[in-house]
Every structure is written in structure tokens, then in C-alpha cells.
Sequence to fold (249 residues):
Amino acid sequence: MKDVKLTEHLEFLVSHRGQDEATVLAHALRRGIDSLYEDTLVEEFLLGRVARETVLRELGPDRLNEIEYQRDTLRREVGWGLKGA
Amino acid sequence: MPETISDTGPVLHLHEIGRLDTLVTVEPLVLPVGVWEELQHRSLDRRTFEQAGLLFTVSTRGRDLLPSAEMLRLQPADHEVFLLAQEGHFESLVLTDDLALRRLLEDRGSTVAGSVGILVRAYAAGRLSREGLEHCIEALLEESSLHLSRAFRSYVRKLVVDLP
Fold:
């Protein structure tokens, strides 16, 4: 079922973007790899296996700021939970 | 006992994993009417809270207060949470899993916690065993409607593994 939908979406893209199938697939692959790369980079950073400077260079200061804010809220929250007994 | 103002998220997520009772550590809860309506829309009612042994009240006060321009980006129920917290000079504990609301509240000095914090608190209070906590966290991350990216799900697991 999902494959049928994927095929339909691909046909839609080919038809509406005026590009051939290979070009659309190349764009999709690029976008997918970029997204997976970012997800994995953030995960490795949060687990202490990638340096902050790498995330700063790859994703920029705004994104790093968001990541660190969310990380710190979770840290604070766990600390709050432990102290609240 | 001081009251705790709650947004929809923590109540809903803990209900989804069958652990609404863990909110007992922060009761009594005050639910803005907008939050209550969202919960009712998701099939939670007074009996759900009674079965979990939770004390709570529904407040319409937030609806009578005027939001500032800064808050207009928030969802209506989140507005009400903020306004109730503001009315109490940001001294009440506020529960939310919404990052935007959390930032607004923390900037004003509120103590804010979410679903993860409530489960850790239940563990620290002896209401959950270590195994129970890990089971609940796993259910929260994989089965509830709490949205966390894969990266942050891994991070939460690490925080829990590292707990004393």
C-alpha cells in the first residue's frame, strides 16, 4: 500500500515539476540523506560522541541553540524529579 | 499544598501509558478549561481522574484574562496555562511538554516540568521501581503521542540509565 502511494507521489512530482524520474529521485535521495545526517549528528552530539564545534559548523548557531535548550530542559526536568521526592 | 497548573500534554501522555496516577506527586492539579476541553475531546473525563486517585479542579480564570501580543503565537489552551501562571506570579509549578510555552514560562521564573520529569519524580518518591520507570519511559517514548525526535529519545534513555 505504501509503495503504491510512493509511486503515485513520484508520478505526481515528475508531472508537476517537469523533471524526469531520475532527477526527482536524485533530489529525494539528497534530501533524505541530509535529513538523516542531521538527525544522527544531533543524536551523537547529545550522547557526547560528536563535538559541539562540529554541530555548530554543520547546523549553525540557531539550530545548535535550539538543541542545547531542549537538552538542558530535559536535564533540569530530570534533576527536578530526583529532588522532588 | 501548592497547586500545580497543567497543560494538556503531560496529562494526556501519562494517561496514554496508563500512569496518570504518577501525577499524584504534584496534586492538586488545576486544569484551565481549555485544557479540560482538549482532554475531554480525547475521551478523558472526571471518572478517569477519580480512578487514578487524582485531585483536580477546572479553572475558567484564564479565559477572563487578556493575552499579551507575545502570547498570540501560542495555542488557546496554552494561553490559559500561561495566564493562570501569571496570575499566581509564576510561583506555581507548571506542567507542559510544549517547548514554546515552557520557554515563555521559564523566562519569567516558573518551575516547569513535563511527562519525563513526572515519571522520574514518581521513581524518586518510591511510586515506581527502577524497572517500572524504565518501562514507563519506553512506553512514553514509543507509544504515547509525546513528540520527541529520535535524537532526543536516545538522550532521555541515557538520562534515565544514568540515574542513581
